[in-house]
Amino acid sequence: MPAYTMPGLMTGQNTNDIVKKLVELERRPIKRWETENEYSKAQVQIWGEVKNLTTNLQTKSRALVSFTAPFATKSVSSSEEGVITGEASRAAKSGNRALEITEMASKHQLSGVAIDTDIRIPEGSFTIYSGKSKETVTFPGGGLTELTNSIKNMAGGLAETSIIKIDKDSSILTVTSIKTGKKNELQFSDPNGILKLAGLVGENKAGGEDTKQLLSLDILKSKVWEPTKFKKSETETEKLVQTEEGITIKADTAFSVPIAVTEIKERAFVEIEIIGEAPAVMELGIGFEKEGSVRNKFLPISKTESKYIFPAGDYASDKNLTTIILSNAATTSILIKSVTLVTPPAPGTAEPLKVLQEGKDLKIKIDGVEITRETNDAIADVLEGISFNVHKVTEKPVTLKIHVDHAKGSALIKEWVDAYNELMKFSKEVTSVEKNGKISDKKESDDSKSADISRDFWDNKSKSGILAGENAILRLIASLKTTANSYYPATKENGFRVLTDIGISTGAVGSNWEKIQDGLLQIDQERLIAVLSENPDGVRDLFASDPNNDAKMEEGVGIRLLEILKPYNQYASGIVTSKVKLLEESVAGNNKKIKEHESHLISFEAKLKQRFLYMEQGVGKNKSVGNYLQNNMFRGNGGE
What we know:
Blueprint: H1 2-11, H2 15-26, H3 28-65, E1 74-78, E2 84-88, E3 95-103, E4 107-111, E5 115-116, E6 124-130, E7 133-139, H4 144-155, E8 159-165, E9 170-180, E10 186-189, H5 194-197, E11 211-214, E12 223-224, E13 241-242, E14 247-249, E15 253-263, E16 269-275, E17 281-290, E18 293-304, E19 307-310, H6 312-316, E20 320-328, E21 334-343, E22 354-357, E23 362-366, E24 369-373, E25 386-390, E26 398-404, H7 406-430, H8 455-461, H9 471-485, E27 504-505, H10 513-518, E28 522-523, H11 525-534, H12 536-543, H13 557-569, H14 575-639
Antiparallel strand pairs: 1-2, 1-26, 2-25, 3-23, 3-26, 4-9, 4-22, 5-9, 6-7, 6-10, 8-9, 11-21, 12-15, 13-14, 14-21, 15-20, 16-19, 16-21, 17-18, 17-20, 18-19, 23-24, 27-28
Helix pairs in contact: 2-14, 3-7, 3-13, 3-14, 7-9, 7-11, 9-13, 11-12
């Protein structure tokens, strides 16, 4: 203590200043802990950014290795703008096709006759048909507005209605089909005369009868159907047998039996009548001609009384029926009495009074082949892998173009390269080391006003990255570089094995070596577009491939990157999470030390003041004694 107090007392320095100086010297550990906390908090921010950047690269890599990655998307267009638009899948074949639109699909539009605007129509019901659908409208009674509201609420999926006011006393009701196409034309059944009173249809007529055509099956020309499932079909003794009662089909057999070619009308069905016992469900089918080829439809049909009803019109309307497919999965034979094609009458029993526009089908020619469809939109069953919309009739043939759309794939790869470069650049910055930077060994004297334990530390950190020497980040940088420059197995013909094959590199030949060493990726856009146009599947394989054909992506740039990044971003035990947790624990520990030391400083300052008070009091007493002795000695000398 005297080493600090005596100079001040001897020079007359204020005791409070001396105490403050001693307290500041005792406070130095707090500055060290606060500096450590500043460093730890800065590291937490850096690690947070590392997590953001690694997560971003993870997301972009997953997009590349996804089965839906759009490397091979194709677009559809026409040589004449505005004729056709659409999309093509990977299955679509690139190329040009001759296309001609001769007629657009249109809606069925009807108009009534003028009637009294204030007409009151009694309650009742009527039915609206469109294609295979029908809706019965229950009308509570009222005027034209109430009638249109009833149609909207109960048959809005088939027709839309409106009222046109001719003059102050008369109005006309119009009805338009929701769907386009000839088959979707509107038909009406009006037993209560409601639509007739509304001026839309004429007299309601009695419904017609079913048309029945007995089909003659030529069992001598029958062919075995699915022999692997119906195992006895190929046995000669198990063939179909024709008798006066009908046709016997034996157990565990199935056959496709030809008939005279017969047109299948809309809503037509095949009725198969059985004699005797038969299973509750029997697999039956039909063969029909569609667009120059024979198609088959085979499905289980439930028995109704002694008949099986196969809805042929649902699958082959307006097609030619060529064969009947019979099967017997039971353990006993089945006797088929007859096979009949039944065609119900048209559902409409009340004819519209005025037709403004007939429902028309779309008529197109592709490579000279004429095709019809009910709609102009989302036509996906004409060309494999292509869905297109037709917008207008062509005056002359145009070219339908199907080509690879490289824009999406190119954008996806660019986003991935940007994410890679951002992570690489940031990682190198925070781990950089200034080779010429040295920490000064010079120490400020304890009594210097500019003494600061953190200054040399931060001066040095300004010359190097805050995570300089951090092995986890250095390993990440090395792994990223290795992944980007590695070779990968090419699983497809003319595949790509390195990123440079598709125009991604760390620099062109002859580039600055230091920049190449940085490891940042560059894209040769012309090369990338070329390979995406010519071999998009090869590009996708470079990022994710299945060399073992086990339906699991195991190789590729994207797959390896995901494996590298996974340990960094795991929620509970990831590298970043663990580092941040340790830093936060360090900050909490230092805060506790700071709080405890500040409590110590309060006690320390109080003790110093008490000691200096005792010293000052002692000095004062000694001074008084000295003065007293000096005065008495002076007096004694004068008396002599």
